[in-house]
């Protein structure tokens, strides 16, 4: 892959891009929509063909729109989207190489680390969220024969979607792993149960990231729980065991201000971040947090299976842990060999909804 030190090299890679102005990504076919067929044909009527005639799509209620169908080999390099409806009402699915089951199935907001339907800027290597609601993904997604992406509108309201999918057509190594992302939500988490971020992964690959939208239902600190990675035949005990929720997301000591000790401190870095969504008064019930952790320099490799869990732990009287009953949602990101095991069914629209 090119970086600043190799940009001068000549390659056989072909750059392509799909948007509402070029649904197929074919060379020399962008901006060709006739005025009478374009969503902005009226606005361009004085200028004519080629003048921003069809810059977005209408995603109709209770419908699915195929935003990409690309023959490979190639690599998805960048996805940019600007949904306008409630972000959990739009479901992104990605299918690799003709598979029946999607390898990515996720509400659009959570996929881009915006699980609470509120804008907060993110500056990371894998995901950037910029004003006003620009969702950007830079996960590299190789495919051998075909990539198909769809957006499903669960709502009763038409959505307006601006989007662009940038990709390259090129040769690939003999062995590749395919990008995956799976969403889950439990609200509330049953008492003394451990939250499962992902399980049932079968194949060889590497785990590369976690996003969590965590709604706290108790006072006091809520992040004592450990994350655990059960891999390659682990049963009761994991191979990798964290020391606390904030520790896993590369923070420490309750994410609190180390000087005033009276508020949470949000941060956004290339590999980890915390977005505080509700008023920043420390240790209050009904706080909502968004947290991401990218294992880009430190992927977690597995040979044939993987399960990832996290405990929800706070504090109760007499210095004892309190198993929490919080509203927790997550997205697991990983690469693996095909085929993809069928994901658990997504919750229905009412269960997904953020109130």
Topology record:
Layout (H helix, E strand, L loop, with lengths): L13 E6 L37 E3 L3 E9 L2 E9 L7 E7 L7 E4 H4 L10 E2 L3 E4 L3 E4 L3 E3 L2 E8 L5 E11 L8 E9 L8 E8 L2 E11 L11 E5 L8 E2 L3 H4 L18 E2 L3 E5 L11 E7 L5 E3 L2 E6 L2 E4 L3 E4 L3 E10 L12 H4 L3
Summarize the structure.
With 355 residues, this protein is mostly beta strands. The protein has helices spanning 108-111, 245-248, 349-352; strands at residues 14-19, 57-59, 63-71, 74-82, 90-96, 104-107, 122-123, 127-130, 134-137, 141-143, 146-153, 159-169, 178-186, 195-202, 205-215, 227-231, 240-241, 267-268, 272-276, 288-294, 300-302, 305-310, 313-316, 320-323, 327-336.
Question: How would you portray this structure in words?
Answer:
By secondary structure, the protein is mainly β. The chain is built from three helices and 25 strands. A hairpin with an 8-residue loop joins strand 16 (227-231) and strand 17. The chain has helices at 108-111, 245-248, 349-352; strands spanning 14-19, 57-59, 63-71, 74-82, 90-96, 104-107, 122-123, 127-130, 134-137, 141-143, 146-153, 159-169, 178-186, 195-202, 205-215, 227-231, 240-241, 267-268, 272-276, 288-294, 300-302, 305-310, 313-316, 320-323, 327-336. It is globular, with a radius of gyration of 21 Å. The strands form four sheets. Strands 3, 5, 6, 11, 13, 15, 18, 19, 20, 21 and 25 form an eleven-stranded mixed sheet that branches. Strands 1, 2, 4, 7, 8, 9, 10 and 12 form an eight-stranded antiparallel sheet that branches. The longest helix is centred in the first third of the chain and has 4 residues, at 108-111. The protein folds into two domains: 14-26 and 44-173, Jelly Rolls; 177-341, Protein of unknown function DUF2961 (Jelly Rolls, Sandwich), CATH 2.60.120.
